[in-house]
User: Which sequence fits this backbone?
């Protein structure tokens, strides 16, 4: 059979069945490049390139521009769909990393409120996949959605190795003990956070239990749109309900005798001052002496602690039923030099009764400094294919210092050419702006993203929905 004509063209791999049930952008990140030759007028598959498209895929932490590489999830997702299985990605916020497989995140603090690392942590977010499949190997009722994680945080107890699943989602929701890493996923989405004080004699005092912090806003992409579909209640019952836990943990002895609130100002933009406030209440009828430690640290999105932002302590006496507020004033000079990626901080308040060393209470709160949004202005006539276009960008410098080395970067998802613009130094509280020159190269709707970095300020972002006609 002679070859009459050779030609190469792109054919996007498309799993129609899975796409119909759960639309996604699989073809954008993992399209195969299929090369064909024509023999006697019939196309014949000649070569398949499966590695060119979608080299590095990232997802964004909630409330920040920190990123987690999810390329492995992309591969898993695509393989599942190639096998004819409906598949989707799941993002879990405040995702617990339970190293002890005990359905709890145990946090230990010394008597000055300094956290002692144990390996347990709470990530700002974590991502895994789900696949829909029957489970004839398990008791009835555990088919359906199964969790699979190609980037698990711990080795699997079943045979070792960094793998997870397929874990039946129903087993997670009902707290069933079985194989396929169910225990770890239960912790990821519903672990209690237990706070202990390590006393001077090395004994432990359980001071507080937070049963609602882990597993927030669990999300997947909605069918037929780019909207967020919340699947939290598919992984666990409503927080605090009878079904959500077999027995609601009782209030600790410390919480019966001491009240403690930890408050941080809302909507603080990087470069601003802000207050951290601790309110201590004597819940007994007797006068008591108290000692309070208030500590702030920079953190990563994984919860890993960084350097100390600020520390203060106070001693005071409260009559029965009385309260006292202690404030800590935090300035940019305290945090700008040590912030990690994402602008996250963690504040810890510890209060203790000196006369009763084992009577103490700890509260923590995660906090993120916001960044100004870049305002993105499109040409009045819109974006037209192959016609030069000017994108106007600007934001206000939030710092009381000059910005130097400023650079705007424009990314257009392949619809417009990427662009870069360097800017002159901008004074304190001044307007940072530039014009970015680009050329549309493909028709369609997309998200135009602009990023700004400088010597003093980084990871300032802005975006605008755009369309090339």
Assistant:
């Amino acid at each position: 059979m002679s070859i009459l004509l050779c030609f190469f063209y792109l054919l996007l791999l498309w799993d129609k069945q899975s796409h119909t049930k759960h639309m996604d952008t699989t073809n954008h990140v993992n399209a195969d490049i299929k090369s064909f030759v024509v023999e006697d007028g019939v196309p014949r598959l000649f070569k398949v390139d499966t590695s060119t498209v979608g080299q590095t895929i990232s997802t964004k932490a909630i409330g920040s521009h920190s990123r987690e590489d999810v390329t492995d999830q992309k591969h898993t997702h695509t393989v599942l769909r190639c096998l004819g299985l409906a598949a989707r990605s799941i993002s879990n916020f405040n995702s617990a990393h339970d190293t002890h497989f005990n359905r709890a995140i145990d946090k230990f603090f010394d008597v000055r409120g300094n956290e002692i690392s144990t390996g347990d942590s709470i990530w700002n977010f974590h991502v895994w996949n789900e696949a829909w499949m029957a489970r004839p190997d398990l008791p009835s009722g555990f088919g359906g959605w199964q969790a699979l994680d190609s980037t698990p945080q711990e080795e699997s107890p079943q045979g070792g190795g960094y793998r997870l699943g397929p874990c039946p989602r129903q087993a997670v929701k009902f707290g069933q003990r079985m194989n396929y890493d169910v225990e770890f996923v239960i912790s990821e989405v519903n672990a209690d956070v237990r706070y202990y004080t390590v006393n001077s004699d090395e004994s432990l005092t359980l001071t507080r239990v937070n049963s609602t912090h882990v597993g927030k806003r669990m999300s997947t992409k909605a069918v037929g749109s780019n909207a967020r579909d919340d699947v939290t209640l598919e992984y666990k019952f409503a927080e605090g309900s009878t079904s959500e836990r077999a027995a609601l943990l009782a209030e600790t002895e410390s919480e019966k005798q001491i009240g403690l609130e930890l408050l941080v100002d809302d909507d603080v933009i990087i470069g601003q001052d802000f207050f951290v406030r601790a309110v201590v209440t004597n819940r007994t009828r007797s006068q008591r002496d108290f000692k309070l430690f208030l500590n702030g640290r920079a953190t990563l999105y994984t919860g890993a602690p960084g350097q100390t932002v600020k520390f203060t302590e106070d001693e005071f006496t409260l009559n029965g039923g009385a309260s006292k507020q202690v404030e800590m004033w935090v300035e940019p000079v305290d945090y700008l030099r040590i912030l990690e990626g994402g602008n996250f901080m963690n504040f810890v308040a510890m209060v203790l009764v000196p006369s009763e060393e084992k009577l103490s209470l700890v509260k923590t709160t995660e906090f993120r400094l916001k960044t100004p949004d870049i305002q993105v202005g499109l040409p009045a006539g819109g974006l037209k294919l192959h016609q030069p276009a000017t994108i106007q960008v600007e934001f206000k410098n939030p710092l009381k210092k000059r910005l130097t080395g400023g650079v705007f970067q424009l990314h257009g998802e392949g619809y417009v050419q990427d662009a870069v613009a360097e800017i002159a130094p901008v004074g304190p509280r001044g307007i940072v702006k530039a014009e970015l020159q680009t050329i549309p190269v493909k028709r369609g709707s997309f998200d135009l993203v602009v990023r700004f970095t400088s010597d003093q300020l980084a990871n300032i972002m802005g975006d605008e929905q755009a369309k090339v006609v």
